[in-house]
Amino acid sequence: MSTRGWTCYFLRYLNCGWYFLSELLVPSGWLRCPRCDGVPLRVTPDGHECEACRVHFPHVGGIPWLFADPQAQLAEWRGRVDMTLQTLRREHTRLTAAAATSSSSALTQRRLRRLAAAMQEHAARLETLLAPLIVASRSASYETSLAFRSPAPWDHGLLTYAYNIHRDWAWGAAENDASFAIVGEALAGTSPGRTLVLGAGAGRLAYDLHMRTSADATVALDFNPFLLLLARTLTMGGELQLYEFPHAPKSLDDCAVLRTLRAEQPARPGLYFVLADAQRLPFALGSFDTVVTPWLVDILPEPFTDLCRRINALLRDGGCWVNFGSLDFHVADPALKHSPEECVEIIAASGFDTPKLGNTTLPYLSSPASRHGRIEQVLSWSTTKRHAAPAPARPALLPDWLVRDTEPVPLLEMFRTQAPATQIRGYILSLIDGRRSLGDIVALFDRQQLMTHEQATETIRSLLIRMYQAG
Question: Could you check whether the bond before residue 301 is cis, i.e. omega within 30 degrees of 0?
Fold first, then answer.
């Protein structure tokens, strides 16, 4: 679609409002409340509503936001967006200052100026794409954002999978075709019917499945709004330009590469997007004929048995589960770091046929601008649901007083103990003025008589070391 065509399409969306938007939403009969498991959710002009638990689930950029704690997750991701944009702009300032130093060579200055300009422009492009998540009146400083950021899982932050978007929509067909071939072979030419891609990432596999098979409908689900807002824009016929920053660029000019992201053509009707948690899925029982889990089963923070039972519940009898990816379970318990043979045993005990495993060698995140790139031995399986399995354990939910704004906040013991601890830490930091030594700070702290002089010295030193090393 041309730029003019995309503009007309987007204006049609704006002008037709809710009625046109409803064409792009998962049919409401497939959905259930991810908080109370009520069926169905009621569609409203700006989201979905659960009449049973009185929770509203908004739309973000036209995508249903179906987390069990929708406002908490919205605040979390808004904070991540704000922090990301501020970090990029601070990096622009840092790189600009570094390029201005007289000790830098001409080539170094050129590289630093290139990176600085790219950081600034990248922030502006992200700000446009992520506008549905940005609060116009938000004015928190970098320091405030840092103070309130979530301690976990920042390893799965806004830009954690940035390379995947370039792989999906800019680098070429090799990796995408290889992934699709695994799923296509598992389906053996049969129609996947209603298909769910769980952990869809930047959306290319869901798009390929929808466009290259006779799927009746395809739902791409992920928890990262950056990835799905981008995927939705591209599969509707839009075009985006974003920077890639290779870790090991092949040349100076490859340190920041402006990529044009596009799909070959707009997706046919029936490709839907949902933002939700894979552990609290917002779908009615038996909604799908096929579930595909690419690079997912080993990264979820739950036992593999629970995931198998959850996928069983999503499928109709006779439905198909296709999986591929590495098998590197990210859990602390060694008993849950399953081998392929253990996975087969668990799958068969969860209402499925005994799956047949496949191993395929694939290129993985091999950017044309980077000297880095991997060859992966990918494990795959395909299996059919034969009967229902016991329901998996329900992950813990946030209490109502954190989800609904009208409930009183209880004075829990954790709040009682944290309040003075926070005040003490704040007092220590307030004593840092650029002139006082560690000994001076300890002497002032001694006046509070909260611990011995020796304890205060050790404790304050350790606190400052941790903060210094955290940068």
Answer: no
